[in-house]
């Protein structure tokens, strides 16, 4: 089946600087695809090339199997939602949504019908006569999307559209955007530096770094099985140790950290060998906590330490534990059961985790 959007060896150079470096990807029809990466990685440059605002240095962009390289922006079957929405304050909501249809010279009765249908689908029926300044931030977001969707684009481009919203509204809009995408059954290409947005909403995520895609997959793939050290460090929170591999036993290994800790991890088929410099990443939620070591016999890694900080955040609360031997701080998620509610700074604790929870990469891979 022909994808709605395909990028083929897309490259963009600005003088001697390569912003996008030989990037290829395909987005199936009706899916939510996110490009996630830090500022300056090239993700907005890709978006602008798809929209037609920038010409690639080389490569091709196909929509529904047809190249759009020589098609001007206003003729491409794409539409774009920006962070600052660009709604017209002097127009009411219905006129904002119907703006593009009027430019197409569509009959007024047909415009009115399409606008009302769009308002129904975004959950705001009957408010077409209201002014833009009467809407909440989330309602403005929905109107901006409705204005694009009445144009029936094959692909909707969203460039950090939640960035200007406050935290609570942003959390709510993640769910709303995913619902709107399903309701309109349109392919969404979403640009963000916020991993939570990408993980919650996307069918597929491409993690971008320095002009290239490091890994593309589902949120679960990226979180639990990162393919590079950059992805392991960028997605979610991780403890990170650097050292030298002393022994490899099948898929298991032992690494001596730079501070002297001996820990076990997993190669996950990466071809690491004894003597290699390496890094191990361990998620804070993968580390178990206890007052004594009696329940830790099955763990490959066991450490005695003291609590140096309590980072209370309700169900997402964490502690920092300083290892007594290596003098390193390790981040550990607190269980949600409440059994450690009385834990205090300075308390001695035991922590442990399985070697399989440690993702190991050759040092310098990121």
Outline the structure in words.
The protein has helices spanning about 45-50, 95, 100-105, 110-120, 135-150, 165-185, 195-200, 220-225, 230-235; strands at about 5-15, 15-25, 30-35, 60-65, 65, 80, 155-160, 185-190, 205-210, 210-215, 240-250, 250-255, 260-265, 275-280, 290, 300-310, 320-325, 330-335, 350-355, 360. It is of the alpha+beta class and about 375 residues long. It has two domains: about 5-230, Rossmann fold, CATH 3.40.50.300; about 235-360, RNA polymerase II/Efflux pump adaptor protein, barrel-sandwich hybrid domain (OB fold (Dihydrolipoamide Acetyltransferase, E2P), Beta Barrel), CATH 2.40.50. It has a six-stranded mixed beta sheet with strand order 6-7-8-3-9-10, with helices on both faces. A five-stranded antiparallel beta sheet has the order 13-12-11-14-20. β16 (about 300-310) and β17 (about 320-325) form a beta hairpin. α5 (about 135-150) runs parallel beside α6. The two termini are about 35 Å apart.
Q: Which residues sit in consecutive blocks of at least 5 with pLDDT less than 50?
A: none
User: H/E series, N to C?
Assistant: EEEHEEEHHHHEHEHEEHHEEEEEEEEEE
Q: How many structural domains are formed by the residues? A: 2
CATH architecture of the largest domain: 3-Layer(aba) Sandwich
Cα-atom radius of gyration: 25 Å
Helix share bin: 10-25%
CATH homologous group name of the largest domain: P-loop containing nucleotide triphosphate hydrolases
| Neighbour order of strands in the largest sheet | 6-7-8-3-9-10
Shape: globular
Q: How would you describe the oligomerization state of the chains in this entry? A: single chain
Largest pleated sheet: 6 strands, mixed
Any idea of the CATH topology of the largest domain? Rossmann fold
Strand content: 25-35%
Number of helices: 9
End-to-end separation in angstroms reads 35 Å
Average pLDDT over all residues: 90
β-strand number: 20
For the record, the CATH class of the largest domain is Alpha Beta
Q: Helix/strand/pairing class, anyone?
A: alpha+beta
